[in-house]
Amino acid sequence: MKVDGVSVSIHADGYVSLTDLAKRNSNQEPRYLIQNWLKNANTLQFLEQWEQLSNEHFNRTQMSAFRLLATENRHAITPKKYITQTGAIGIISTAGRYGGTFAHSDIALNFCYWLSPKFQVYLIKEFQRLKAVEQLQLGDPFNIKRHLTSGNYSLLVSAILSQTDERLLTHPQPYKSRLPFAAESDMLNKIVFGNTAKEWRLQNTDKPADRNQRDYANVLDLTVLNNLEFLDSMLIRWDVEKEERQSILQETYNIIHPILKRSKTLKRLQELADNNNPESHPIAGV
User: Fold this and answer.
1) Could you give the 3-state DSSP secondary structure of residue 2?
2) In this structure, are 15 and 63 located in the same domain?
3) In 139-218, where does DSSP find H-type helix?
């Protein structure tokens, strides 16, 4: 990511490169700048509090000894010494071409504040931007939409199982692979969204593999889907053939969709959903 014109690496576990952040100060070698930060009494107090909250294996006794050592000018205080002596997890130090000192975002923000409060603000802005991009990519990061439709989907599953030949439930493959859950869901997907799950996936290869079109659907469509799932589950229990079920469900969709589209409640729910969408809130300076 870019922070005030500085390219900053992100470790595989999400930790931020303090080495790259330190490069903003061109008057001093990054590793010496990080060592000076580690010798700061306020820094050590912050690190100790962070580790106590986040790391059950943090060695508080050794931390006390490390803080005393940091006050002696003749000792070089390095990230590796800090990690080794205290068992800290908030900072990691790696060697090699792409190595350096990385820290949890909380600690990286503290480092930025030590460098410059203004620089800390830039880092916060960039984190906000990255989080917004992540949420847009996920579609529904808190799985609220999945919760909305999961209840009636369980009714649909139960109805299918109640009408399924016992061999499909008690025997191994290939019987279980023929349980019609996906086919039934895709019939509903086609009615509500116009695509099966596979068709949507082929059209949205940039989306995460564990997401589907329901994660990106609007409140109206999900509400309609919820109603159709319930109706479909009852039709299955009443032994209605699939072709007739599809016709009934399509007709029901044609009736309830325009009615629910006028619902003030659903419009308000959509507004709330939109207000929580990062795309609706551009971040200043990005």
Assistant:
1) strand
2) yes
3) 144-162, 166-170, 181-192, 197-203
84 within some domain: yes
* Residue for token pair 């595989």: 12
- How many structural domains comprise the chain? 2
- Provide the residue count of the chain: 286
Asked, for residue 14, whether it belongs to a domain, the answer is yes
pLDDT value, residue 3: 73
Query: Does 154 share its domain with 227?
Result: yes
Contact 77, 68 (CB under 8 A): no
The reported pTM is 0.47
Helix (H, G, I), strand (E, B) or coil at 25: coil
- Intervals of the chain under pLDDT 50: 167-169, 175-177, 278-286
CB-based contact 277:215 (threshold 8 Å) = no
Structural domain range at position 78: 2-137
> How high is the pLDDT of residue 144?
57
